[in-house]
Specification:
Shape: elongated
Structural class: mainly alpha
Largest sheet: 2 strands, antiparallel
Number of helices: 9
Radius of gyration: 18 Å
Strand order of the largest sheet: 1-2
Number of strands: 2
Order of helices and strands: HHHEEHHHHHH
Distance between the termini: 35 Å
CATH class of the largest domain: Mainly Alpha
Number of domains: 2
């Protein structure tokens, strides 16, 4: 991993997980000391994160990008369109073995009430849905990936229960297993709408 990638990974993870809060000032000097790299890779990492919408440059100051209701609305509208589009193509070909595996992993994470593990399974599951090998689709998905990851962690800190999230995921898995696109799409849209509402509610408390 290059120095720039190291700095990028460190800062991005801190933002995504909420350790660096919206509108928090990011000091280059502090970051170089924390990461153990020079200022150049930190600057390069910050510019990349700016392109992804995770940091803003305000004059000579760098801050964590605010997360507004409009940002969340746009992210979830686009995410819903992309995931339901992909689902139509993948619903018939996601192997039952993989569906059974993610179902077990969801249940294990929920039983242990381990949000970190649960989010990893969540990323894996939605990756199965969106795995359609289309270049332009992948580019669109990448545009919202950072904001999607950010809201995943916000959802984990919201009042929304893991049990409710688990039930929604199990419903989606069940409909996919039955190869019923119409019902799987409804279950997916319902799940994404509930997450969207939970994130908006959390933002109101910030």
């Amino acid at each position: 991993m290059s120095r720039k990638d190291e700095a990028y990974s460190y800062i991005r993870t801190k933002i995504i997980k909420g350790d660096f809060l919206p509108e928090q000032v990011l000091s280059e000097n502090t970051l170089t000391e924390k990461i153990g790299v020079s200022r150049t890779p930190v600057r390069e990492a910050l510019h990349q994160l700016s392109a992804e919408g995770l940091v803003d440059f305000v004059g000579r100051t760098t801050i964590v990008a605010p997360l507004t209701k409009k940002d969340v609305e746009e992210t979830y509208e686009l995410r819903t369109l992309l995931e339901t589009y992909a689902l139509e193509k993948t619903v018939a070909r996601i192997p039952n073995e993989l569906l059974n595996q993610v179902e077990r992993e969801f249940k294990e994470a929920a039983k242990e009430h381990d949000w970190q593990k649960y989010l990893e399974v969540d990323i894996k599951f939605h990756g199965l849905i969106t795995n359609i090998h289309q270049k332009q689709f992948a580019q669109l998905l990448n545009i919202i990936r950072s904001q999607t990851d950010r809201t995943r962690y916000i959802n984990a800190h919201s009042k929304r229960s893991m049990d409710r999230s688990l039930e929604e995921h199990l419903q989606i898995i069940d409909k996919i297993r039955k190869r019923n696109f119409v019902e799987a799409k409804k279950a997916l849209e319902y799940h994404l709408q509930r997450v969207y509402e939970a994130v908006l509610e959390y933002i109101d408390y910030l």
